[in-house]
Design goal:
Blueprint: H1 10-17, H2 34-38, E1 50-60, E2 66-77, H3 80-87, E3 88-94, E4 98-107, E5 113-115, E6 122-129, E7 132-140, E8 149-159, E9 167-169, E10 176-184, E11 189-194, E12 202-203, E13 209-216, E14 234-239, H4 247-262, H5 270-280, H6 286-300, E15 302-303, H7 313-318, H8 325-331, E16 333-334, H9 336-349, E17 353-359, E18 379-386, E19 389-393, E20 413-416, E21 423-426, E22 436-445, E23 451-459, H10 461-471, H11 476-490, E24 495-502, E25 511-519, E26 524-526, E27 529-532, E28 554-555, E29 560-569, E30 575-578, E31 594-602, E32 608-617, E33 624-625, H12 630-644, E34 648-651, H13 654-658
Parallel strand pairs: 1-10, 15-16, 22-29
Antiparallel strand pairs: 1-2, 2-8, 3-7, 4-5, 4-8, 6-7, 9-14, 10-13, 11-14, 12-13, 17-18, 17-20, 18-19, 20-21, 22-23, 23-25, 24-25, 26-27, 27-34, 28-33, 29-32, 30-34, 31-32
Helix pairs in contact: 5-9, 6-9, 8-9
């Protein structure tokens, strides 16, 4: 089977909205149908501001050394908003592809045609990461007006690529009357449609096969929706010599094959045997032994695949490959896969049954065992037999705590390899308590409403992993700016100083923010009263869900919890007028999915106020909800938002106020 390079699946993503012209000009456009010019209203969605009349992509995989995409898109503009949204085009491409043969034009309502000039195309690089460059070609289409038609086309070539495991997307950010993909395969090709109705590839001219979808609605993102491949219309292509492979047999064969292929990768030699005794030490229980091995692999072995390893792309290229876990141990460095295999070898040396395992990846799509293709197993890690139960580990995920997998691998069917009969098991999902945001604040409120004091926030579990991954390759100045920007989005007058950001690249310790903060006008003063929101950490935050209705399912990647402990010294001359706490959300009322409580108290002398808040979500292993549950979820989070912004009143006694 000819495999496509790892990056090639992005080609299909680029087909959506992101590919770019490099040069323009052509005089052999497909004729404009008078009915297209006369069209006064959208066909697919009645409220659309712009609609694609057709979107055509020709995928030529007939050459062994490359794959080429030819795109042609024609769009009708209906409103001023449509003009604004379609007049400027920002399209992305990658440094491993070539783009050429591009043309673009505007056909105005009076029939005037305007071509985009080459000089009006601007090129820039958005991201450079591990040798990968994400570039953008930007241009503005001239003379667009409601009633006009715009169209552009381009050709993109991927040297060394193929259509194997390619994803063809059929939706754009505007509705499309007709989408057609024409495929010329290199060899026998199978395909799996998703949310495509009864669409099929049919034989077409010139050894091409065509799949067409009509009246395709726009794809619109919604907050907290499932991964795009779970909700978009798309087709998965793969090379095969079978019409319909038997999924059960396929997975068994794959499990056996991968067991044999990975035996050497987790081989135990004398160095491994010698090392494991010192690593395990006096640990007695199986869990304690595995934790020491796990933490050793995370803390003592440099993961060269990690963007925080300090290695440049050139330095990574020059690294010698480890041929065994013994090499990884000796060199104290290796790729993410090397780190996982070293963990497996050490676990085996400690007397455990350790296997290579694979699962789906929830950040991409939800795995379905009936889809017989290894491409849908987007994650790999180590399974270890502990008693009668299989547990799962990936120290290659440097910041994932012991006993957890990264959230994309949680709640997945896992294929555990075996020489005879591979095993299917289920990976657990971490509880809300495993991912905690613990926030403490000690403040003083001044008579003018200014709040100032010291803050400390600790993130653990998935929350901590995400914070570390986001910050670990930034400079200290960039990390501080990220923190400040987040605070300013909630409180525009905030002033931050004495920032400390701890454990950014520490595999074990929590990610920590600490800083001093001053917020002028935090409490609102009206006459003799100050109106105070004691929930500092939620102050100014936006509601999670604002739309009145919902199309997609609601999806939370993982469960989490929050805990706030706040102390506020009240201003001299003010006494608490009202300190009622908002009502609690009883977990029993949500079937243990969520809970929220706030407690407010003051010292006996009335000089200090204490605010205690607890919140969790995703209990009972519930993180995905049908669209029909949206009204209830919105009501829940609206109530949490309201309670978090609860206001109390401080009153200045009359005698003090007159002074």
């Amino acid at each position: 089977m000819k495999l496509m390079p790892r990056l090639l699946p992005l080609a299909a993503v680029l087909c959506l909205d992101l590919l770019v012209p490099a040069v323009i000009f052509a005089d052999d456009w497909r004729p404009i149908d008078p009915a297209e010019m006369a069209l006064k209203a959208p066909v697919v969605e009645k409220d659309a501001d712009a609609e694609a009349i057709f979107w055509e992509v020709r995928v030529d995989d007939s050459q062994v050394d490359q794959i080429a995409f030819n795109h042609h898109l024609r769009i009708k503009i209906f409103t001023e908003r449509g003009k604004e949204s379609q007049s400027k085009v920002d399209l992305q491409y990658y440094n491993y592809s070539r783009i050429k043969d591009i043309a673009a034009r505007v056909i105005k309502t009076d029939g005037t045609m305007i071509e985009l000039k080459k000089a009006d195309i601007f090129d820039s690089t958005l991201v450079k990461l591990s040798g990968l460059k994400v570039k953008t070609k930007s241009f503005a289409l001239p003379g667009i007006e409601p009633g006009a038609i715009i169209e552009y086309r381009w050709r993109e070539v991927f040297p060394g690529g193929s259509a194997n495991r390619l994803r063809l997307h059929f939706q754009r950010d505007i509705p499309v009357q007709n989408v057609s993909y024409y495929l010329k395969p290199y060899m026998g090709m199978g395909y799996q449609p998703f949310r495509m109705g009864d669409a099929k590839f049919v034989k077409d001219k010139g050894n091409f096969y065509r799949m067409t979808l009509t009246n395709v609605k726009a794809f619109r993102e919604e907050p907290r929706m499932p991964p795009e491949n779970e909700v978009r219309s798309w087709v998965f292509l793969y090379y095969t010599d079978q019409q319909k492979p038997d999924s059960e047999r396929y997975w068994k064969d794959l499990g056996r094959t991968m067991f044999e292929a990975t035996k050497t990768d987790m081989k135990v030699n004398d160095d491994i045997k010698s090392a494991v005794a010192g690593i395990v030490g006096d640990a007695a229980s199986p869990e304690a032994k595995l934790q020491r091995i796990y933490d050793f692999c995370r803390t003592e072995i440099k993961n060269t695949s990690d963007d925080a390893s300090g290695l440049t792309a050139d330095e990574r290229e020059k690294l010698k490959s480890n041929k065994s876990p013994g090499d990884t141990l000796k060199n104290k460095s290796g790729t993410g896969s090397d780190v996982d295999m070293l963990f497996a070898a050490l676990a085996k040396a400690a007397g455990f049954d350790a296997r290579f395992a694979m699962s789906g990846n929830r950040s991409d799509m939800f795995f379905d065992r009936t889809l017989a293709n290894s491409a849908f197993l987007g994650a790999a890690f180590v399974a270890v037999k502990v008693g009668e139960k299989w547990e799962f580990f990936s120290p290659a995920e440097t910041y994932t705590p012991f006993g957890m997998l990264g959230w994309p691998e949680e709640a997945q069917e896992v294929l555990i390899t075996d020489p005879k009969d591979p095993i299917w098991a289920n990976s657990p999902i971490a509880t809300p308590a495993n991912s905690l945001e613990k926030r403490t604040g000690k403040f003083e409120l001044h008579p003018d409403g200014t709040l100032e004091g010291d803050v400390r926030i600790e993130y653990t579990g998935h929350l901590g992993s995400e914070k570390k991954e986001f910050n670990d390759d930034d400079s200290p100045a960039q990390r501080e700016e990220t923190l400040k920007e987040g605070l300013k989005r909630r409180m525009s007058t905030v002033e931050v100083s004495d920032i400390k950001i701890e454990n950014v690249s520490d595999p074990v310790a929590p990610f920590v923010y600490s800083y001093r903060v001053r917020v002028p006008g935090y409490a609102q003063r009206t006459g003799k009263r100050l109106f105070l929101q004691p929930g500092f950490f939620e102050h100014g935050g936006a509601a999670l869900f604002t739309a009145g209705s919902r199309q997609q399912s609601i999806y939370f990647p993982y469960a989490w919890s929050e805990q706030d402990d706040i102390e506020i010294k009240l201003p001299e001359g003010y006494a608490l007028d009202s300190a009622d706490a908002p009502g609690a959300i009883d977990p029993a009322a949500t079937q243990q999915v969520s809970g929220h409580s706030v407690k407010i108290s003051v010292t006996t002398d009335g000089k200090k106020l204490f605010y205690r808040r607890k919140f969790f979500f995703g209990g009972n292993q519930t993180i995905i909800f049908p669209a029909s549950a949206y009204a209830g979820l919105k009501q829940l989070f609206d109530l949490v938002h309201k309670n978090d912004n609860h206001t109390i009143t401080l009153k200045q006694p009359a005698a003090t106020a007159s002074n």
